[in-house]
Amino acid sequence: MAHPSQLGFQDAASPVMEELLHFHDHALMIVFLISTLVLYIIIAMVSTKLTNKYILDSQEIEIVWTVLPAVILVLIALPSLRILYLMDEINDPHLTIKAIGHQWYWSYEYTDYEDLGFDSYMIPTRDLTPGQFRLLETDFRMVVPMESPIRVLVSAEDVLHSWAVPSLGVKMDGVPGRLNQTAFIASRPGVFYGQCSEICGANHSFMPIVVEAVPLKDFEFWSSVLLEMATMEEVEMMMDEDFC
């Protein structure tokens, strides 16, 4: 997660985010070089070093300031398009999770399992334990296996939402009546925080996202525990109905 006085991006936790950070540094260096060149030309013109009242036009200069920007745009566009297509690639996901936005919480459904799903609410400030983060912690985290392709289907039930986790390089809008998809691979274990990135009402800032990446064996244990809990709840409901 971000820390106080941070100037750069969060540490990358997925291959796509690493590519985005590299592209950011690449584009920032080009912008820095352009700014330096323009500043030098302005200073030189003010000091009359580049001023000549006898030159009214120059074919060579016009060729340079036409070709050079085109080359710069190509240097920016090629890696940008590569990353854009890389982010759209979803090949053979190991796990599919459906994230549905509500006012103002998220619900998750693990579609590869029969009855594995839950709602994720923000933990109020008064209920936080030492070490937890205000406005970012949830009562149930979205747990995923690390180093596995994960597909996330994003939708919404009421208004527009946006499922975004910066350190994973993921941001996808949730639109009522539509099903958008994105994918990521958590390259290391950890807890990654995000928030709804689309203004969705009065409590827009109170619907955080927490993704926890764990080894595969730990994910299997976690999923088996949740399935057992769901089965026990169904049995209790059936017993209550029979008793009534």
How are the secondary structure elements laid out?
Layout (H helix, E strand, L loop, with lengths): L14 H32 L12 H30 L6 E8 L2 E6 L6 E4 L21 E4 L3 E8 L4 E5 L4 E5 L5 E6 L4 E6 L12 E7 L1 H28 L1
Parallel strand pairs: 1-5, 4-10
Antiparallel strand pairs: 1-2, 2-3, 5-8, 6-7, 9-10
Using the coordinates above, name the CATH class of the largest domain: Mainly Beta
Number of helices: 3
Radius of gyration: 25 Å
CA-CA gap between termini = 49 Å
Q: What amount of the residues lies in strands?
A: 15-25%
Low-confidence stretches: none
Within the largest sheet, what's the order of strands?
3-2-1-5-8
Order of helices and strands: HHEEEEEEEEEEH
Structural class: alpha+beta
Written account of the structure:
Residues 92-225 form the Cytochrome oxidase subunit II copper A binding domain. It catalyses: 4 Fe(II)-[cytochrome c] + O2 + 8 H(+)(in) = 4 Fe(III)-[cytochrome c] + 2 H2O + 4 H(+)(out). One of its GO terms (biological process) is ATP synthesis coupled electron transport. With 244 residues, the protein is of the alpha+beta class. The protein folds into two domains: 13-47 and 57-86, Helix Hairpins (Orthogonal Bundle), CATH 1.10.287; 93-238, Immunoglobulin-like (Sandwich), CATH 2.60.40.420. 37% of the residues lie in helices and 24% in strands. The protein contains three helices and ten strands; from the N terminus they run H-H-E-E-E-E-E-E-E-E-E-E-H. It has helices at residues 15-46, 59-88, 216-243, and strands spanning 95-102, 105-110, 117-120, 142-145, 149-156, 161-165, 170-174, 180-185, 190-195, 208-214. Strands 3-2-1-5-8 form a five-stranded mixed β-sheet, with no helix packed on it. The longest helix has 32 residues, at 15-46. The protein is elongated and about 90 Å long.
